[in-house]
Design a protein that fits this description.
CATH architecture of the largest domain: 2-Layer Sandwich
Distance between the termini: 35 Å
Strand content: 25-35%
CATH topology of the largest domain: Nucleotidyltransferase, domain 5
CATH class of the largest domain: Alpha Beta
Bound molecules: adenosine monophosphate
Structural class: alpha+beta
Number of domains: 4
Largest sheet: 6 strands, mixed
Shape: globular
Number of strands: 27
Helix content: 25-40%
Radius of gyration: 28 Å
Length: 603
Amino acid sequence: MAKAVGIDLGTTNSVVAAIDEGQPWVIPDETGELILPSCVGLNPTGKLLVGWEALRQYAAAPERTVKSIKRQMGADHKTSLGEREYLPQEISAIILRTLKQRAEAALGEEISQAVITVPAYFTDAQRQATKEAGEIAGLEVLQILNEPTAAALTYDFRTEETEKVLVYDLGGGTFDVSIVEITGDVTEVLASHGNNRLGGDDFDRRLQRHLIDVFRQTHGVAVPDDESTQVRLLRAAEQAKIGLSEHAFTTVREPFLASKGKTALHLELELSRQTFEELLEPMLGETLEAIDRALADADLQASDLDRVILVGGSTRIPLVQNLVQEHLGQAPIDSIQPDLCVALGAALQAGVLAGESVDAILVDVIPHSLGIAAAVETPLGPLPGLFSTIIPRNSVIPVSRSEVYSTMVNNQEAVEVEVFQGENPIAKENVPLGAFRIENLPPRPAGGVQLEVHFDFDHNGILTVTATEKGKGQQSSLVVNDAATNRLSSHELKAARAEIESLFELDDGDEQAKVSLSQAELLDQAYSLLDTDTIPPEQAEKLRQVLKQVEAAMSEAAAVSEVAVSEAETISTENHQRLSQLLQELEELLHASGSTMSDEDLD
Ligand code: AMP
């Protein structure tokens, strides 16, 4: 039987899991790492980097690195990576393919099917793009599953009683809260709310701004606005944030951020958890409001909840745990690692769909109401442009519903069916999903021709709308995602798959694609090679010389900021070229000396 895996395709991190003897487990990479940063890059020679490798080069080469692509899913603008531009689903496909390869290496068999999770709040366009990413990666997507639902599956308590569980999921880039009802083997989502642009990344940026303010107040000089300095600060902010989850204080130290005259300026401060919490708290208010909305939608009080589950790396923040506890009056549980449980739940569901013996059945709901624009009869006459809901939000899926509409004017020849999703009573205020026409209606007085509009929403979140004229039976239909998301044609999917595959082939087989190391890694390697005394004396001498020159060139580069601006630019270009040349020389020397320079060894 073919194995199907569960994939948590996260904004910050992604995880793949599978079922073994009915139990889900997270599949590590060959070094034992469970999490794959959702980061994709190209090194200077065009070699594909995915995960930690890509993340490591982000500070030095943001133009060749893509992070948080999940935030772009569903949009049709491309992201440039090196010399080419890619759709968000193509970048996501690279991450998925890497996880597919990881699973194949660990399980020793080809993996062709997956369940992929998305935030419950994702729109159809975002879900569709996720499905396409799977297809481009060579995976048949068995189901696009809501993340909180997946998490609830792992905490399936198997009691005979019905349990109402609130899942609070705060990750790197998205926030969701869902209320699910578990009865025996059946999990049903009662309500769900969230914000697909709120998460740990925002906390990092808020803290980064704070660090910038502190630096300016301390030194009276602004932090340079260049990308690599900003990226350094962002990384420092994230580290501080993670440190503060365990400790009440943490030290932030970033040397050589700017200079004043001949003096180099450093950022150094002691940050308290309390300061961080004051910055953070306003952003968390929204998550508490979402809890209240979900409770109201499910027609429940906080006291009706049997359990509260925390999901997502950001729920490790003590303030988050405290606020949720205070708000709901009960302590949340987080006994399964909050950043792994979504993938584990996806694996359980993949197991069910692939026919393995896993006892969990799933019922899911639609996150937004679906309907069409229509005129509604009011005491003042018919009012056009209102939103007529056909499938209400939180309906259990798959779901099919129909409504009947009539023509508005005498001898009306055609009807335009405009499909929307959202909750606003004015149709145009909701998200348009597409439109189609039914023409050649028979000549009748107003109200004389009836149209049945049928909505079919399948378990992947794909909506098919069909309008049927009652008399003649003529039909017109629309698969909404095609229109809403510029769904890729099968030809385009094929082309994208070939393109992504060629990137991986370069990765696997191209002997010429040399690993480019960061300056620091190069220097590290050179020094440790000299320490080990394993290279012939002449080569060691040459290495020492080049190292000396590299260091001189690096300190010249550091001194450039003291020269007047226009002059500094030319000097810095020359210096940069010289430095690159020397670094290349160093790299070649290390290669020649047989130093261990494959990327595996750098991990
Ligand atoms: P996820 O999307 O669930 O993988 O969560 C990733 C987010 O969790 C990132 O913003 C991380 O910085 C954040 N994160 C991970 N561990 C911690 C921690 N111990 N404390 C605070 N935030 C964390």
